[in-house]
Each structure stands twice: as C-alpha cells, then as structure tokens.
Amino acid sequence: MGIGINGALPWRLKQDMAFFKKITSTTSDPEKKNVVIMGKNTWLSIPAKFRPLSGRVNIVLSTTLTEVPKDVHIVKSFEDAMNLIDSMISTVEDVFVIGGASVYKKAMYGPYPCRVYLTRVLGDFKCDTFLPQIDEEMFTKIPNPSSVPEQEFEEKGTKFNIVVYEKCQN
Does position 147 have pLDDT exceeding 70, yes or no? Predict the structure, then answer.
C-alpha cells in the first residue's frame, strides 16, 4: 500500500499518469470541472510546471502555505474543503482526493461517500508513505466502471493494474 518515498512517487508510470489526468479532468458536462483536493506536501511534490493541475479546481489543505497561484484555493482542513465545494456545487462534477496519506484517511473514513481508484503496482518499491488500509467491512471492490481500464499494464518491467473500491452505504 506504499504511495510515496521522500515526497515523490516511488515509480514513474506514464500510462498511470495518463489515466490519472483523464479520470480527474474529464466531465460529462462541459460547463463543469472536477475538483482535486490535496495536502501541502502533495502540492509541493507536483513539478512547478504542472501546478496547478490544469482543467481542474485545485484545493490545497494547509495551515502554513501562503503563496499559490491565484486560481488555487487554500483551506485549513478537509471539512473546509468540503464546505468550499458545497459553495460551488453548481460548477463542480466530481471530487478527487489525490494525497497524501492523512487526506486520504479523512476522505475514506470520514462521513463522505467515497470511491477509491487504486493503482496496484505489482512490484517491490521502498516507500515511507502509505495509503490507509482499505477496510473490507467498509469498502467493496466493484467492477471497474467503463472509464477505468481492466487490463494489466507493464512499463519498463513494472506491471500494474487499476481496481476500484466503493464505500458501503449503511
């Protein structure tokens, strides 16, 4: 369940990055945008030339960050991010949490509907940051939606696939 090492991804998988861009950018309503929520360290790990992530509403959780591009929203907590999204709901289609571990935990185990798009990298990589455990009593693996490829990929000897989990409704 490793997701990071020294503030970066432990692997470079172009097909996975292309999927990430497509799933977080594509909307069915051309008048709307998707939101990406991330912590400060995730924001800082994105190469400067790619910040903010284009075509998406970027929300960064931070109590210390003060300077970001004008189209980026800084909020102090996950709850503040959700309140901000509520205020712009007419222009938002989907919300994606893109890291780090503590932000994933808030989304996955908070009182929010949640779907996890998990890239399973089938190899051993040294990691110092991990996705919270997916509790099988709270989440169910579902068939991949049509927007999510089913096949196993391989790049430079590293195999990976994408699986989807959905939080059970109580």
Answer: yes
